[in-house]
Amino acid sequence: FAQAYKQRMGQSEHLTQTHLMATCSDFFVAGMETTAATLRWAMLFFAKNQQAQEKLRKEMLEVVGTDRAPE
């Protein structure tokens, strides 16, 4: 994206280095916010659903165990 943007920067007064940085920042923050929102909803779901929480815990113990951290 950034490479294509930079190639076209001279073709329009609206395509500036500042605008490119702002757009890249927007992409970065949007990606982080999506992940954060998903994790918040997952935590709320498990907090309100004991059966699902127990099922998740059982699967984590089977797959990861207690001797190591998840990869």
UniProtKB/TrEMBL annotation:
It holds the Pfam family p450. Gene3D superfamilies: Cytochrome P450. Transmembrane segments: none annotated. Keywords: Monooxygenase, Oxidoreductase. Signal peptide: none annotated. PANTHER family: CYTOCHROME P450 FAMILY (PTHR24284:SF1). Belongs to the cytochrome P450 family. This is Cytochrome P450. It comes from Pristionchus mayeri.
